[in-house]
Write the structure tokens for this entry.
Amino acid sequence: MKCEKEAVLLMHKVLDQEATATEKLQLNYHLKSCADCRDYFEELREAESFLQSAPEVRAPNGFTSKVMAQLPAEKKTVRFKRWMKMHPLLTAAVLFFILMTGSLYASWTSENELSSLSGNLTFDKERNTVIVPEGEVVRGDLIVKNRNVEIEGEVQGDVVVINGERYMASAGKVNGKIEEVDHIVEWVWYQIKKVSSDTIDLFSSDATSKNKVP
Amino acid sequence: MDAIVKRIIKQVKKGDHNAFGEIVELYKDKVYHISYRMLGNKQEAEDVAQEAFIRAFTNIDRFEINRKFSTWLYRIATNLAIDRLRKKRPDYYLDAEIAGTEGLTMYSQLAANEELPDEKVVSIETQQGIQQEILNLPPKYRSAIILKYIQELSLKEISEILELPVATVKTRIHRGREALRKRLRNG
């Protein structure tokens, strides 16, 4: 074939859809007059359509799960976040539970609290013990937290010992109830009882104030 | 489509497996198709396609979000397929005796030829014919031809996938077309 090089380049340019209108005309014009090039171009187009007739091939079944099974472990935070998105109600419940326990635990351990309404108390630092001295009278409830308590005198009210121990001297006297709270569960229960009795108090005081209105 | 892919990729970058599952679903056929046409063997094609996705996942940090994801993914797949072709040597021959047997060859391990309906035979034959012709092309031209005619990608995209100048891609496609033309004329 004489005209090969130039014509063939043009053919490929046309097949690549990069030929200008003039170049296309130029090729067409040439093909009309040259049978060899006409055949050649026809064969190239056949090769193209042969390739284009290749059927679609689909990935085999279970392909995605096989890939997923081989991925390196997922970052925990991501899994956690996705879980939260999928279970908003459970997330709220868990969050509530965490905060609840957190605050309860904090109030269980944090401050060393001592409350009583009146009366002189002494505190033995070494033994971490609050002492109601002999002959002393405490009016009201005595609540001791994270300390031991030793009662030699008299308490005219309830004694509550939280996370501590209680010693009663033979001369000691408690008029109200004695309660010892040693475990977190009991502490929770105690808090609930306290809250509910406070609420009841609130209501009853409300009631009395109402009654007082003439 | 691109916006959706971009959003999913952002999740994948955070390490989200499930988001990557969506990516696999979107591109598995195309990636498998490329590797099947490159290798001409279903098992190897599946291995390479899976490997391509796993590489994409583990290297997702290197992918720039503003680029086209498919280009990047196809590049990984094509490179893996080319690597596989380079390493490929015939490990065994059908008429070699199987170790520990007497006179038993690999031929006995082949599935029996099942009777197929005529039409099916024809379509499988043309399919195998096309695949065979593609495999006859040197790998250099093969990848360019596959991306151009099987995946119907633009020359610019092919040049990005193969990391070659557009002019080189053109030359390879031209040579591939020429090689195929000659074979089809003789066949």
